[in-house]
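Incident log entry.

Two folding requests arrived from the same account within the same minute. Monitoring flagged them as a possible duplicate submission, but the sequences differ. Recording both here for audit purposes.

Request one:
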Amino acid sequence: MLIGIHPALTPDLLRHLQAMGHGDTVVIADANFPAEANGARVERLAGISATEALEAVLSLMPLDTFVDEPARVMQVVGDPDAVPAIVAEFNAILAARADNPCKTAGIERHAFYEEARRAFVIVHTAETRLYGNIILSKGVVAPD
């Protein structure tokens, strides 16, 4: 354990978050997400929900201020305007915890998979709620 580091963040995940550069992306994925099929780097957070993982990542990682949509979620198949309860929770966490508060933007399922394939790392959680997937774009840490 370290002071100030969320206990859900594993040593390997911390290394990946630190290694990411501006504009790189991290996917926080639910238990049903095909992480191994879509990601070169996959970190598992056994027993951790996607919302807890989002809070943990946002405790250390700034969101990109140079893009319009630094947080993207998978749209509900057949109902792209639907907002699942977990997405509403993602939005509340982003509003409360992000250094650059924003709302999520929805993208079509297969487009989400394409973006996930280009992500720096996929964080595969134990989340069982459907559509518990979010892509975050990393921002910069400004000098003091």
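Request two (distinct sequence, not a duplicate):
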Amino acid sequence: MSTSGSPVDQNRGTVDATGLHVAVLVARFHAEITDRLLAGALEAFREHGAADDDITVLRVPGAWELPQTAARAVESGNFDAIVTLGCVIRGETPHFDFVCQEATLGLGEVARGSDIPVVFGVLTTDDIAQASARAREGRDNKGYEAAMAALEMVGVYRALEVE
């Protein structure tokens, strides 16, 4: 698995989660993977100053349900950023393609229509080994990476605000 080009290391310690209210939406399907992605995201937020009370974790059945939940979370007005975490592993039927496409397109639509960052942290892998490699502890955890992207994007959005 390549992590070359990832901004995680260069952004460590340069972003601040203090006082931010974030939602982490986590698919329960493939929980052995998504729980580890969640652990990575929580580590990133806490490492950068987020208080546990400012992090809302919402569990949904699977990746399919992430876009509709993200839309509701945006509409609530309660969050400064949203991170979505899920895992879809290719099987023997086209179900993989349908779920991946709708999760991707749906979250993209929510993100484009939102005034806050909505970050895509859904793994789409060929097998469990690939998913496990992306959910291990440390810098290669894609949940950590998604949380870091959310923190960076909060800064970008704030820089773009018009007074």
